[in-house]
Design goal:
The complex is a heterodimer of chains A (320) and B (284). With 320 residues, chain A is α/β, with parallel strands linked by helices. Chain A is built from 13 helices and twelve strands. In chain A, the strands form two sheets. A seven-stranded mixed beta sheet of chain A has the order 2-1-3-4-6-5-10. Chain A has a five-stranded mixed beta sheet with strand order 7-9-8-11-12, sandwiched between helices. The radius of gyration of chain A is 19 Å and the shape is globular. With 284 residues, chain B is an alpha/beta fold. Chain B is built from eleven helices and nine strands. Chain B has helices at 6-30, 35-39, 42-52, 76-85, 125-139, 158-169, 190-193, 199-205, 218-229, 249-252, 265-283; strands spanning 32-33, 67-70, 146-151, 175-181, 184-185, 188-189, 208-214, 235-241, 260-261. In chain B, the strands form three sheets. Chain B has a five-stranded parallel beta sheet with strand order 2-3-4-8-7, sandwiched between helices. In chain B, strand 7 (208-214), helix 9 and strand 8 form a beta-alpha-beta unit. The two termini of chain B are 28 Å apart. Chain A: Residues 12-178 form the Transketolase-like pyrimidine-binding domain. Chain A: InterPro entries: PDH/Transketolase (IPR051157), THDP-binding (IPR029061), Transketo_C/PFOR_II (IPR009014), Transketolase-like_Pyr-bd (IPR005475), Transketolase_C (IPR033248). Chain A: This is Transketolase family protein. Chain A: It comes from Lactiplantibacillus plajomi.
C-alpha cells in the first residue's frame, strides 16, 4: 500500500538509497553482491566496499565483463546487483545482458543511473534516452523507473525476491522530489493511481511523476480533472489499469524522461492500438533527439519536460 | 614429467577417438556443422572428462563439481559427445543435434543440456562468465576448478581481454584458461584475418602464468593441467598448439573446415571411412 507524501520536497539522493538498501540486504543475505565498473565513486558503491568489502567487486572499466562476471556469480548461487551509467549497460553491454543474462536465465539486478536529462555535464555521449526501449525488448525482463527515493528503496529490495532474470531499474544518482510517504509499498507490474479524474488520463514514469502531479494540479485550476498513474513498472505494463482508466476519457498523456519511441509512450500506444482504445494520445518525452551537455535543469527545459512545458503541450494538444 | 600411466593413456586415446566419432557422426547426421573446432579440442576434452575434472553424471548440478565453460560454443558437438560418453545422457541423443526441440543446440545451453555449466555461443562471453563462476567459487571457499576453453579466433573479441584483465588482477588460480590455437577461424587462417602474433607472450604480458602444449598430446595436456592446478596465487593459462580438424586427416586437410556440409557423396563415403577408423580405435 502506498501513501502520498504531501510535502513534495527533494528526498535522499537515489544513489544513497540504492547503497543503503543493498547494505540492508547484505546484512541479512551473504549472497548479495554489488558490482561496479570504475564508477563506485560516482555511485557511492565505495560505501559498500568499506562496510561489506567481501560483497563488492570493482571490475574496472569493463561493463560487458561486469555483466558476464555477474552471470557467473548467479550460476554459483549469488544475487548480483550492478551499477553503471544507463547507456553503458543498455547500449554497450546489451549482448551480454541478453545472452549471459536473460537468455541464460541468470539473475542480474541492474541500476542504470542518470538516464535522460540527468546525464547533465557528462553530456550526449553519456546520455541514454533509449535504455527502456532496449531493456524492455529483451524477453522476460522487468523494467522499472521509480518516481522517488521511497519507491527506489522498495524496488531495490523487491528485486532480491524476484528470482531469476534481468531486473532493470533506472534512476538519477542525485535526489528527486518525493511522491510517496515513507514505508509505502508497491507491486511489480501494477501502476499506482495517485489521483482520480474524469477528463484526462495522465500516465507518467520515473521522476516525471512529480511533473505529472504538477500538471494535474494546474489543470484542475482550469476545470480539467485528470487521473495520474505512476507506471513505475514499464514492463510488465499494467494494461488492466490502463484500459480501465482510459474509459470515457477525452485524452491520454504519457510522460517520460526517455525517447517517445520505445519507452512508456510506445508501450501504452501498443496496448491502446491492440485493444482499440479510441482515445487521443499525446506522448510527452524526448522527441527523437540525441542528448547534449548542460545542467539537468537546462536539459529538462531543452527537451520540453518541465511541468510548465508539459502543461502547455497538453493544453495545446487537447485544446483545453 | 609425464605422469599418465600407460593404461590411462590408452583409455584417454580411446576416449578422444570416441568423442571425435560421436561429434562427426552427429554433425553428419544433421547435414552440417562445426567440425574443425570440435575436433581440435577433442584431445583436451578427453583429458578433462576422462581424468582431470570432478563431476557426477547422475547429479549434473553436484555442488562439488568442477565447471567447464566452452566459450568457443560452436564446438558444442564435441562437448556433447564428451558428456554423453561420460554418462550425462544417452549417446543416442546425439542424433538429435540441432533438430527442432532438441536438448542439444549447436551452441551450449546450460538450461537444456545436463552437464553444460554455462550458456555460450556469442563469442567472448564465456570468458567473463567463467571469471564470475571462479569468483563465486572462491567466495564460497570451494576447492573446485573452472576450465575455460577459448578459441584463438575468439580472441578477436574485446571481451576476452576485459575478462583476462579481471582474472589476472584477481589472481583467480581456480580458473584455468585454455586457448585452443587451431590457427583458423571462419574466414580462413587466423594470420590472414586478424593476426594474433604470439598468444602465449600476450597472455604472459596480461599477467598469466602461461604454458604451451601440443593440442594432440594427451600426456602434455594432462601434465600441463596438473601443473597449472598446483600453481597458486596467479592466473593460469594453457595455450594449445592445435590443428583445426585434428585427428582426422580428411578434415585436417580440408581448406574450409570450420563448418562442413555433408551434401556430397564422395565426402560422405570418405567420412564413413574415417568414422570406421575412429570406431576401431575406441572399440579396439
Amino acid at each position: 500500500m502506498f501513501k502520498l507524501d504531501e510535502r513534495r520536497e527533494n528526498g535522499k539522493e537515489l544513489r544513497n538509497v540504492v547503497v543503503d538498501s543493498l547494505m540492508d540486504l547484505m546484512n541479512k543475505n551473504d549472497k548479495v553482491i554489488a558490482l561496479d565498473a570504475d564508477l563506485a565513486g560516482a555511485s557511492n558503491f565505495n560505501r559498500i566496499k568499506s562496510a561489506h568489502g567481501k560483497s563488492f567487486i570493482d571490475v574496472g572499466i569493463s561493463e560487458a565483463n561486469m555483466i558476464g562476471v555477474s552471470a557467473g556469480l548467479s550460476l554459483t548461487g549469488y544475487t548480483p546487483y550492478v551499477h553503471t551509467f544507463a547507456p553503458f549497460v543498455a547500449r554497450r553491454a546489451l549482448d551480454q545482458v541478453y545472452m549471459s543474462g536473460a537468455y541464460s536465465k541468470n539473475t542480474i539486478n541492474i541500476y542504470g543511473s542518470d538516464p535522460g536529462f540527468n546525464a547533465g555535464f557528462n553530456g550526449g555521449t553519456h546520455t541514454s534516452y533509449e535504455d527502456v526501449a532496449i531493456m524492455r525488448s529483451i524477453p522476460e525482463t522487468i523494467v522499472c523507473d521509480p518516481a522517488d527515493a521511497v519507491q527506489m528503496e522498495w524496488i531495490i529490495k523487491e528485486f532480491s525476491n524476484l528470482g531469476q532474470g534481468i531486473h532493470y531499474v533506472r534512476g538519477n544518482r542525485k535526489s528527486v522530489r518525493n511522491v510517496y510517504a515513507e514505508n509505502s509499498s508497491f507491486e511489480i507490474g501494477k501502476g499506482n493511481l495517485l489521483y482520480e479524474g474524469s477528463d484526462l488520463l495522465i500516465i507518467a514514469t520515473g521522476q516525471l511523476v512529480s511533473e505529472a502531479i504538477d500538471v494535474h494540479d494546474e489543470l484542475s485550476k482550469i476545470g480539467i480533472s485528470s487521473d495520474v498513474v505512476d507506471m513505475f513498472t514499464i514492463k510488465p505494463l499494467d494494461t488492466d489499469l490502463l484500459l480501465e482508466r482510459a474509459k470515457n476519457k477525452r485524452g491520454i498523456v504519457t510522460i517520460e524522461n526517455h525517447n517517445i519511441i520505445g519507452g512508456l509512450g510506445s508501450a501504452v500506444s501498443e496496448v491502446m492500438a491492440e485493444k482499440m482504445v479510441g482515445v487521443p494520445l499525446l506522448r510527452v518525452g524526448n522527441e527523437d533527439y540525441f542528448g547534449q551537455v548542460g545542467t539537468p535543469d537546462y536539459l529538462q527545459q531543452a527537451y520540453g519536460l518541465t511541468s510548465k512545458q508539459i502543461l502547455s503541450k497538453v493544453k495545446k494538444h487537447f485544446s483545453f | 614429467m609425464f605422469i599418465l600411466k600407460q593404461e590411462e593413456l590408452q583409455k584417454l586415446q580411446k576416449l578422444a577417438a570416441h568423442i571425435r566419432f560421436d561429434a562427426i557422426q552427429a554433425i553428419k547426421n544433421v547435414g552440417q556443422g562445426h567440425i574443425g573446432g570440435s575436433l581440435s579440442i577433442s584431445d583436451l576434452l578427453a583429458v578433462l572428462y576422462g581424468k582431470q575434472m570432478k563431476f557426477n553424471a547422475d547429479d549434473p548440478n553436484w555442488e562439488l563439481r568442477d565447471r567447464l565453460v566452452l566459450s568457443k560454443g560452436h564446438a558444442g558437438p564435441a562437448l556433447y559427445s564428451a558428456l554423453a560418453i561420460s554418462g550425462f545422457f544417452d549417446e543416442e541423443k546425439l542424433s538429435t543435434l540441432n533438430k527442432g526441440g532438441t536438448s542439444l543446440p549447436s551452441h551450449p545451453d546450460h538450461l537444456r543440456t545436463p552437464g553444460v555449466d554455462a550458456t555460450t555461443g556469442s563469442l567472448g562471453q564465456g570468458t567473463s562468465q567463467a571469471a564470475g563462476i571462479a569468483t563465486g567459487l572462491k567466495l564460497r571457499e570451494s576447492k573446485n576448478f573452472v576450465y575455460l576453453i577459448v578459441g584463438e579466433g575468439e580472441l578477436n573479441e574485446g571481451q576476452c581481454w576485459e575478462a583476462f584483465q579481471y582474472i589476472a588482477s584477481n589472481k583467480l588460480d581456480n580458473l584455468i584458461v585454455i586457448i585452443d590455437d587451431n590457427k583458423k577461424q571462419l574466414d580462413g587462417w587466423t594470420d590472414d584475418v586478424i593476426k594474433q602474433w604470439d598468444i602465449a607472450s600476450k597472455m604472459r604480458s596480461f599477467g598469466f602464468n602461461t604454458i604451451q602444449v601440443k593440442g594432440d598430446n594427451l600426456e602434455s595436456i594432462d601434465d600441463g593441467i596438473e601443473y597449472l592446478k598446483t600453481t597458486k596465487d596467479t592466473a593460469n593459462c594453457m595455450v594449445l598448439d592445435s590443428v583445426k580438424g585434428a585427428g582426422v586427416p580428411l578434415f585436417e586437410n580440408m581448406e574450409n573446415n570450420h563448418s562442413v556440409k555433408f551434401n556430397d557423396d564422395e565426402l560422405n563415403s570418405q567420412t564413413d571411412e574415417a568414422l570406421a577408423k575412429l570406431q576401431s580405435i575406441y572399440e579396439g
